[in-house]
Amino acid sequence: MAREGRWADGPEPAGPDEGEGRSGTNPAGGLPAGPDRPLPAGGESDPRPPRAGEPGWLQRVAALTGVVPADPALFLEALTHASYRAEHPDTAGADNERLEFLGDAVLNLCVTDHIFRSYPERPEGELSKLRAATVRAETLAEAARRLGLGELLRLGRGEEATGGRQRPSILADAFEAMVAAVYLQEGLEGARAFVLRTLGDDIRRLAARSGACDDPKTALQELSRRLGLGEPSYRVIDTAGPEHDPRYTVEVRVGGRPLGQAVGRSKKVAEREAARIALAGLGEPAATSAGPAGAPEGGGAGGSGAPAPDGSAHAAPKGSHGTPPDGAAPPDGARAGKA
């Protein structure tokens, strides 16, 4: 197409009527290229996909990313590695390092917003771990491979010769630069859609892998369903302390049986610890990991029932408020302090 031919020799934009008869140099092969003589990517006998700037690259970007580039120069910059610019300082235009910088921030915002909304029961520490696992270089590099960004990149000869198209750091940087390009063209909602389209499955996989240990409420829900016991239920059975520093005692029941009680400075924290205790009572190995940092094993020193200093929850001590009305005792191991 004539529009693509303009970009074959660099990122310099041309006006609607400029360059229609211009020919240039194919940056990969040094062959004449232009709207009047489009070449197959890499030459007459090379079936490889087009690199950025070669005929057909814009359609390939659109096909792989779901975004039709309105400003080819922007996407060409996103796909230009610093090594290519170093070898072609007069024609390459900008490399993708600035876009990578912006894309890193946009990516973090999109992922953070998504996991915050998708996993309301998970505390800040677990969300941070999930975000870190999602935006780390290995995850982004794999996403870039799936998209085929490595084949589109403009690389210097040295990087090309040493396998730069498959190098995780280069691929991760290219992915972040592409996020930035989409953001600058489509805005935050467009960037969010691109990020979730390309990383959504990774987020779900990483969340599920860590869920059994890191989110006891989700783990208990899944185990309860698996055992045919229905949904766990939580209720506050006691509230103590002043209004500005309350203590909540929460009980969790599974299949109508009380399986755990815990005390915390918020209902959610107490529910999480009660779920952890219930999992241990049901013999779920993933739940036997230690509770939140600072929560003394067995429910605090001497089973006092006071929350740990950091505000985390611990098991309600034996004999605390909230004994089930029907007098049913929790199974062995369901409450800390039970012999």
Topology:
Blueprint: H1 2-5, E1 24-25, E2 32-33, H2 57-65, H3 72-78, H4 82-87, H5 97-118, H6 124-135, H7 137-147, H8 149-152, H9 157-161, H10 168-214, H11 216-226, E3 233-240, E4 247-254, E5 257-264, H12 267-281, E6 314-315
Antiparallel strand pairs: 1-2, 3-4, 4-5, 5-6
Describe this structure in words.
The chain has 339 residues and is an alpha+beta fold. It has 2 domains: 2-211, Ribonuclease iii, N-terminal Endonuclease Domain, Chain A (Orthogonal Bundle), CATH 1.10.1520.10; 217-315, Double Stranded RNA Binding Domain (2-Layer Sandwich), CATH 3.30.160. The protein is 45% helix and 9% strand. It has 12 helices and 6 strands. The chain has helices spanning 2-5, 57-65, 72-78, 82-87, 97-118, 124-135, 137-147, 149-152, 157-161, 168-214, 216-226, 267-281; strands at 24-25, 32-33, 233-240, 247-254, 257-264, 314-315. The protein has a 4-stranded antiparallel beta sheet with strand order 3-4-5-6, with helices on one face. A two-stranded antiparallel sheet has the order 1-2. Helix 3 crosses helix 10, helix 7 packs across helix 10 (168-214) and helix 11 crosses helix 12 (267-281). It starts with a helix and ends in a 24-residue tail after the last strand.
